Amino acid sequence: MDDNIINEVRPNSRFSNYDPQTSEQRAALEIVRAMAGSIIENAENLAAGRASFTDGALWVLSGGPGVGKTHLIEAFINEIREKTPALSSLESLRD
Fold first, then answer.
1. How far is CA 87 from the centre of its chain?
2. Are 87 and 23 in contact (CB under 8 A)?
3. Residue 94 above 50 pLDDT?
């Protein structure tokens, strides 16, 4: 079994088609979009092993069923895959 689950997300999950209904969902959208932007901006260094997530950051999305957690994570992955081909594989992020 291929452990690279980044290839198993729905390709139509995008930030642009996420429809936040509450202020919490709007805030989550902006936070996750900013996290993707940070990775994209640092993609070259991440792919080359010159940067890592050493600050011990843990990202958690929580909420009830149907609030968009899966959509946001898939949009996050799709954004990174589209804009940073070097990071499209988990292999490039492993030690």
1. 11
2. no
3. no
